[in-house]
Amino acid sequence: MSIVQTHNLTKKFGKFTALDQVNLHVDEGEVYGFIGPNGSGKSTMIRLLLGMIKATKGEATIFGMDAWKDAVDIHKRIAYVPGDVNLWPNLTGGEVIDLFMKLRGAGNKNRREEMIEKFKLDPSKKCRNYSKGNRQKVALVAAFASDADLYILDEPTSGLDPLMERVFQECVLDAKKDGKSILLSSHILSEVEKLCDRVGIISEGKMIETGTLSELRHLTRTNLLVETKLKVIGLQELRGISSIKETGQVLSFQVDAEELDMVIKYVSQFGIVRLESAPPTLEDLFISHYEVKPNVKTVI
Amino acid sequence: MLKQSFKQTGILVRFIVRQDRVRIPIWIISLLLITFSTAISFSGLYENQQERQAIAQTMLNPVMTAMVGPSEGLDNYTNGAMLAHQMLLFTAIAVAIMNILLVAKHTRMEEEDGQVELIQAFPVGRLSNLSATVLVVCGTNVLLAFIIGFGLAALRIESLGLEGSLLYGAALGITGIFFVGITAIFAQLSESSRGTIGFSFAVLILAYLIRAIGDIGNETLSWFSPLGIVLSAEVYVYNYWTPILLVGLLALLLLVIAFFLNSIRDLGAGFLSSKPGKIHASLFLQGPISLALRVQRTGLIAWAIGILVLGASYGSVLGDLESFFKDVDMMDALLTQVDGFSLIEQFIPMLMMVLAMFCTVPALLIVFKLKGEEKKGHTESLLTRAVSRTSVMGSYVIISIVTSVVMLLLAVVGLWSASVAVMDEAIPVRTLLEAALVYLPAMWTMIGVAVLLTGFLPQFTGVTWLYYVYSFIVVYLGALLQLPDWMGKLTPFGHIPQLPVEEMDFMTLSVIVIIAITLIILGFVTYNRRDILG
């Protein structure tokens, strides 16, 4: 069942189109990774889903309800953490967490203490004295201490240290284990790789790729490292090969997925001593989409 | 849908009260102190009706009308009439400022900083934040109105009756609520908190000016200003309640518009959108001085225009004053009585003092900007480059001092050009210039205090404003309230020779300049030695 569903969602700010007919769905119990360069429309998407801005065209539903009209009802079952958390300078972190829990209605006192402990937050400090990371912890504690069905997290770890990042990842996986759904927008691709079941890549307001990580990988190149008995010749003439690097008898290069079979057959003629293959990282994926963009533009 | 829009307003109300648990009481207590202490001091100041009537005579001139409002109660100048005449307008302005700042903080400022977004992600109505803000701030006004009303009545001063006192409180409260409406609307229209506060203050200043012009000449005009309408309640004289009701209705209308605008806009968006800026730094923007200047450009231009208009509006009154003095032969308690000078000339020192006081504000704001930038971490990004602390602070101090001179000159230009147009025998521009520029040392001393505090006690820079307000009250109202002389000597403004009536006193001026320089140097020394806030 889809928890979040958008249909041709479009948002224009004056003449500028921030989101262009985006279709996205997040299923129950799924962690959905939402990635894209700065200014690509990630935050606009999230603010549309939260009913803070109104779609120009198309529709967005959460739990089957309209994201704009039924915002209040939807929010009873949502926890949101923004990337840039600004709190009220003259209140303590503990006060803010309590307010947040009270506003949602449901909440668990024990979970609150547990999360404060986990994230090593000092709740007695005034918010004006918190660093960026600590302000983010306040929002994260309030979010994970709540009993939400959907977590919307907009670059939630941008201020956390690696240790806290790990705590955060545990919390996400725990929530997933409990059957919750998570929409995670992030820049940290290793984090998305670790946590997400499915990924959507957005660029210039358009959803350019979506699917499971392995589906996406299929679309791109595999990294190969080959050591052969004889020197490989004529490799650059083959189709679908790029970034060839040669160090003595060891060759490393990237191969398009559909040419893989043909390339392996060709290379094996030279007597393979060692063969290592690595799946493309999300970074490769991301960059390959990013680089393609100018060509796409000229076609259109 | 409508009921949903206000969901959880109650919790947010309590939350705002919690946040403002110190701020709101400070405002209320200060306003109470000013009102009650003035009421008490008035009753002790004048023994009988004759004495009050004598003061009333001195009030019967266009300058006073422009400053404090119409003079209906002057025929029978009771304690109450005096309080309402001299204090109601200024207190109402203070109340308006309180409301502008409180509303802007909880609406656009929190929206800009992202706190509203955090709250809005909870099951909270789209209009809940605005309605909670309006409830709390309007509640503050109602509370203020009742305490002032019953409090004034409880003082048991002759002629401060219960009805009049309640009306006095209501007049203040309703002015406040009107500006809740104004600020709430600009919080929807403008995309920034600066814009919200700026536009709201512009309305306040406009309301004051329209009323001033209206009260001198054209009474209908005063009805276009909320302050003018409120003053027509004639508190303690005739006690009309209709104007209060009228302003209340206007406020309600404003609030309805604000709620409507809020309901149809996106979070974070405004109706007056900002233009895209330059891609490269201009040739002008090349160092700390020009950066400091560029950051404050808009504010400084607005102040320059404001000061020019202020000067001109005082200047335009001089014509009325001249013909007024020709008809009436009287003495004025506000003025130093010296033979050989026309009454107009005797008015000049007071005018200049007031203008100099106003011109000090933008100069002080520049110094405070340095601390504001520091707190936001902007100064840090300058200091981590090859820029010394002395040059950072120096840029602001230089701009501040230049601003004090430029603003004062603009005030004189405004005053002189308007007075030339309306007067039969114009005052020579040289006289005006001398009378104005002589205040510069006092203004620099205020700058010095601000610089020293920025360097030495950055948490307490606000003390400068207290000192400023003290100076204003003591020097401006000192004669009226018959304050002891030594109180006037505690502010640099009290030492300035009153040209053209008094002799030029270079000795005193040099001492004040030396004090100002010392304060500024101490500020630099301490600024170089302390930790940078961040």
TrEMBL record, chain A:
SMART domains: AAA (SM00382). The keyword Metal-binding does not apply. It holds the Pfam family DrrA1-3_C. The keyword NADP does not apply. This is ABC-2 type transport system ATP-binding protein. One of its GO terms (molecular function) is ATP hydrolysis activity. SUPFAM superfamilies: P-loop containing nucleoside triphosphate hydrolases. Gene3D superfamilies: P-loop containing nucleotide triphosphate hydrolases. PROSITE patterns: ABC_TRANSPORTER_1, ABC_TRANSPORTER_2. Residues 4-229 form the ABC transporter domain. Keywords: ATP-binding, Nucleotide-binding, Transport. InterPro entries: AAA+_ATPase, ABC_transporter-like_ATP-bd, ABC_transporter-like_CS, ABC_Transporter_VariousFunc, DrrA1/2-like_C, P-loop_NTPase.
UniProtKB/TrEMBL annotation, chain B:
The keyword Transcription regulation does not apply. The chain crosses the membrane at residues 24-46, 83-104, 132-154, 166-189, 196-214, 240-261, 300-319, 347-370, 391-416, 436-458, 465-483, 506-527. Coiled coil: none annotated. Keywords: Membrane, Transmembrane, Transmembrane helix. This is ABC-2 type transport system permease protein.
